[in-house]
């Protein structure tokens, strides 16, 4: 897989979840042949709202679909967008201003997560972008400065966005944002890659550096998005995605890592039966679905026992959402994979 594409795969996006097994509809999921969006880049985030799925990519393209099957381009935004969420009757998309390529070294040598190897050298993202829309069609850019934002979620009457160097921002409207402190975590310069809401709290996952410089999977929790507490994940793998369902949080990441927790504080390691990096996970139709590199597709009724499904595509799938009776996965090269409830 092209390393530039891997960057898109590392940035998962908002995951729509149900609140527990009692609300799950049991059905068979039929996966349709993968389609390709009308955008120009690797898709990195997808969300449902206002009667449509809306997806963002790394070229600033926005596409929408009422079914997940046929997609229409709706906007081209300045910047690179990595995630999108719906809340408060609007969409919020977050990302970076620009991509610096062919660098001989990382932009910050002390933080290996600030740059990534590519076929031609190194690349890193600069700045942050935020845009809001009532319907996924008409977008308003929001002035923002600071580090790249990688994920955004809605809960407790506010949006919470997270990103590089432990960036955490909150906003009730998506227009004015307030920076929040990391809390009691001892990790250095954590990269926060995904966020989910469930069980009365937010859970953020990512990667950070321990005192000895070794990588540690990062987990933070907050009841309100304002005050944060760090927890021991028990893994040194980069955690890429997180979702709530079936009475637990499920986090997925590099090397096929899968962790579960009833509260976001105490985590158990599960067996995924794959070494593929997993970038996104969602709960719906009585099961978790995790997606990842080379079209990796796994399902589980409880987050503990996982079954590898036959990949429907060789493209990396970077995010997945459940809504409107179907899963919609998005990823590399504009790939879109839809699984409908039969």
Summarize the structure in short.
This protein is mainly beta and 342 residues long.
Structural commentary:
There is one protein chain. This protein has 342 residues and is an all-beta fold. It has a single domain, classed as YVTN repeat-like/Quinoprotein amine dehydrogenase (Methylamine Dehydrogenase, Chain H, 7 Propeller), CATH 2.130.10. 2% of the residues lie in helices and 51% in strands. The protein has 1 helix and 32 strands. The chain has one helix at 3-9, and strands at residues 29-31, 35-36, 43-49, 52-57, 61-65, 72-76, 80-87, 90-96, 98-101, 116-118, 121-126, 129-133, 140-142, 149-155, 158-163, 168-171, 178-179, 188-198, 201-209, 215-222, 229-232, 239-245, 248-253, 258-261, 268-270, 278-284, 287-292, 297-300, 307-308, 317-323, 326-331, 335-341. The strands form 8 sheets. Strands 1, 2, 30, 31 and 32 form a 5-stranded antiparallel β-sheet that branches. Strands 3-4-5-6 form a 4-stranded antiparallel β-sheet, with no helix packed on it. A 4-stranded antiparallel β-sheet has the order 7-8-12-13, with no helix packed on it. A hairpin with a 2-residue loop joins strand 18 (188-198) and strand 19 (201-209). The longest helix has 7 residues, at 3-9. Residues 1-24, 102-107 and 109-122 have low confidence and may be disordered.
């Amino acid at each position: 897989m092209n390393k530039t594409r891997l960057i898109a795969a590392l940035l998962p996006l908002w995951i729509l979840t149900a609140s527990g097994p009692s609300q799950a509809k049991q059905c068979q999921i039929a996966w349709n042949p993968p389609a390709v969006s009308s955008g120009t880049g690797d898709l990195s985030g997808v969300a449902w709202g206002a009667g449509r799925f809306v997806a963002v990519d790394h070229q600033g393209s926005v596409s929408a679909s009422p079914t997940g099957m046929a997609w229409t381009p709706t906007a081209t935004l300045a910047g690179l967008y990595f995630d999108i969420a719906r809340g408060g009757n609007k969409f919020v998309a977050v990302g970076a201003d620009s991509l610096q390529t062919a660098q001989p070294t990382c932009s910050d040598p002390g933080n290996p997560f600030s740059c990534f190897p590519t076929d031609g050298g190194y690349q890193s993202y600069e700045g942050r972008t935020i845009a809001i829309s009532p319907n996924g069609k008409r977008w308003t850019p929001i002035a923002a400065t600071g580090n790249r934002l990688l994920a955004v979620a809605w809960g407790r009457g506010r949006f919470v966005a997270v990103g590089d160097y432990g960036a955490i921002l909150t906003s009730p409207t998506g227009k004015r944002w307030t920076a929040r402190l990391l809390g009691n975590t001892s990790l250095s310069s954590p990269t926060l890659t995904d966020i989910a809401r469930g069980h009365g709290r937010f859970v953020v996952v990512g990667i950070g550096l321990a005192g000895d410089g070794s990588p540690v999977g990062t987990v933070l929790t907050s009841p309100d998005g304002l005050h944060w507490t760090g927890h021991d994940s028990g893994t040194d793998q980069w955690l890429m995605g997180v979702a709530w369902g079936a009475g637990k949080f499920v986090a997925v990441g590099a090397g096929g890592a899968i962790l579960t927790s009833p509260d976001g504080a105490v985590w158990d390691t599960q067996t995924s039966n794959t070494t593929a990096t997993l970038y996104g996970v969602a709960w719906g139709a009585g099961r978790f679905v995790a997606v990842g590199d080379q079209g990796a597709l796994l399902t589980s009724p409880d987050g503990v026992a996982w079954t590898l499904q036959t990949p429907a595509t060789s493209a990396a799938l970077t995010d997945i959402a459940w809504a409107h009776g179907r899963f919609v996965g998005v990823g590399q090269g504009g790939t879109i994979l839809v699984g409908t409830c039969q």
